[in-house]
Automatic annotation (TrEMBL):
Cellular compartment(s): Cell membrane
Keyword hit for Transmembrane helix: yes
Domain CBS: 223-284, 287-344
Topology in the lipid bilayer: Multi-pass membrane protein
Pfam families referenced in this protein's UniProt entry, alphabetically: CBS, CNNM, CorC_HlyC
Biological source species: Brevibacillus brevis (Bacillus brevis)
A single MF term (Gene Ontology): flavin adenine dinucleotide binding
Leader sequence residues: none
Membrane-spanning residues: 6-31, 61-81, 101-122
Keywords: CBS domain, Cell membrane, Membrane, Repeat, Transmembrane, Transmembrane helix
Domain CNNM transmembrane residues, every copy: 2-204
Gene3D superfamilies linked: 3.30.465.10, CBS-domain
Protein name as catalogued: HlyC/CorC family transporter
């Protein structure tokens, strides 16, 4: 009978170890599983996923249930496990005619070690690893049992949660409900980790990064500067404006009255062509449309909304003095999300070119973009572009060959158009033989 009693206790020990593992696996699985994936399965008609949704929607309570289950199983192991194994070991050590005190001590140490090993390996580590690697499968399997346990132990769980909240209240700490939402930085980290794991490609990574940067980018950072604006002038002869359109590569042009500080509207070449074919007067004002005017500090996300509401394609950017700073088109805004959009008329040089171990950079590149590309910090509260930053470092009108050193890089003015820096070369100082393209 004693043997059968010991075997029964051993069976109880293994059941308690498995129960401990069940609650550990449940706890990690419901925390690790993606709620969006469960919602997708539930929408497809998976009944077990519906059970999981109920658990996830009351996550804190079910985590408390898991903790209670782990505690009860661990207490049971301590109560039954050590005596059961020690009882089996006693006859073995008595065979060697050892002192009863020695037999009891050795049996206790071995029994305690065995129970600890089983508890840690089979009751903690193995279930945890399984739940983390196969969280979806595990959570679908345990949802029903944990719901049943929660219903049975509901009064005790509520009492324990209430006691915990009262205790924390003594220290002026309130229990906040579980939040599934992630901050922008957390989402960026998750996306980067997914990219490293091969779950998303480089294009998808770029799109996510660009979308987060979208609301922080101001119109002045992406605008076509005033000096590069191609405009039609009401004070010029009509034929001269037509030549500008013929020689140009755009479908829309700002219309000014005298100079670029007096933008009075925009012109779509389709309107002009249609009007000319229908014999309308040769007057730009006949074909003009209104144009949106916004300050240079407006975010491009807000500007996009304004253009959508007005069904516009172009906006004039005004500086703090009321003058024209530049213009932004809908294409410029979309390029901030999807990257460069080239059409059959675009013949612009790439922003970045590689040649002879150096980088050739467009002077209009934003300092933030240059810094990210070269992994250095280029900051200025007064200017946004690389050309503007170099201009501030020199004390004379820019000339080809002017040099500015910053960190591990030397920037050399490569091309100048009047007083405007259009191209800049960047190379690592002291490492001319090292190809920057290896970055």
């Amino acid at each position: 009978m004693a043997i059968w009693g010991s075997l029964f206790n051993l069976i109880l020990v293994m059941i308690l170890v498995l129960l401990n593992g069940f609650f550990v696996a449940t706890e990690f699985a419901i925390v690790k599983v993606r709620e969006s994936r469960i919602a997708q399965l539930a929408a497809e008609g998976n009944k077990r996923a519906v059970d999981v949704e109920r658990v996830l929607h009351n996550l804190d309570a079910y985590l408390s249930a898991c903790q209670l289950g782990i505690t009860l199983a661990s207490l049971g192991l301590g109560w039954l496990g050590e005596p059961a194994i020690a009882h089996l070991l006693h006859p073995v050590f008595r065979y060697f005619h050892l002192n009863e005190t020695v037999v009891t001590s050795i049996s206790f140490i071995i029994a305690f070690s065995v129970i600890t090993f089983l508890h840690i390996v089979l009751g903690e580590l193995a279930p945890k690893t399984l739940a983390i690697q196969y969280s979806e499968k595990v959570v679908l399997a345990v949802a029903k049992p944990i719901q049943l346990f929660y219903k049975i132990m509901y009064p005790f769980i509520q009492m324990l949660n209430w006691s915990a909240s009262r205790f924390l209240a003594l220290f002026h700490i309130s229990l906040e409900p579980h939040q599934e939402a992630h901050t922008e930085e957390e989402i960026r980290i998750l996306v980067n980790e997914s990219h490293k794991s091969g779950l998303i490609d480089q294009t998808e990574l770029m799109l996510v990064d660009n979308i987060f940067d979208f609301s922080e980018t101001m119109a002045r950072e992406i605008m076509v500067p005033r000096t590069d604006m191609v405009v039609l002038n009401l004070r010029d002869p009509f034929d001269e404006n037509v030549k500008h359109v013929q020689n140009g590569r755009f479908t829309r042009y700002p219309v000014v009255d005298g100079d670029k500080d007096h933008v009075v509207g925009s012109l779509h070449i389709k309107d002009m062509l249609t009007g000319l074919l229908e014999g309308e007067s040769h007057d730009l004002q006949t074909f003009m449309r209104s144009i949106l005017t916004v300050p240079e500090t407006i975010s491009i996300s807000r500007l996009l909304t304004m253009l959508q509401k007005q069904r516009g394609q172009m906006a004039i950017i005004i500086d703090e003095y009321g003058g024209t700073a530049g213009l932004v088109t809908l294409e410029d805004i979309m390029e901030e999300i999807v990257g460069d959009i080239q059409d059959e008329f675009d013949d612009e040089r790439p922003e970045v070119e590689r040649s002879d171990g150096m980088l050739s950079l467009d002077g209009r590149m934003l300092l933030e973009e240059v810094g990210d590309y070269l992994d250095i910090e280029l900051e200025s509260s007064d200017v946004d572009t690389l050309a503007g930053w170099i201009y501030m470092q020199i004390d004379h009108p820019p000339r080809v060959g002017d040099r500015v050193k910053e960190g591990m890089y030397e920037f050399v003015v490569g091309e100048v158009d009047h007083y405007r820096i259009t191209r800049v070369y960047a190379k690592k100082i002291g490492k001319a033989e090292e190809e920057i393209s290896s970055q």
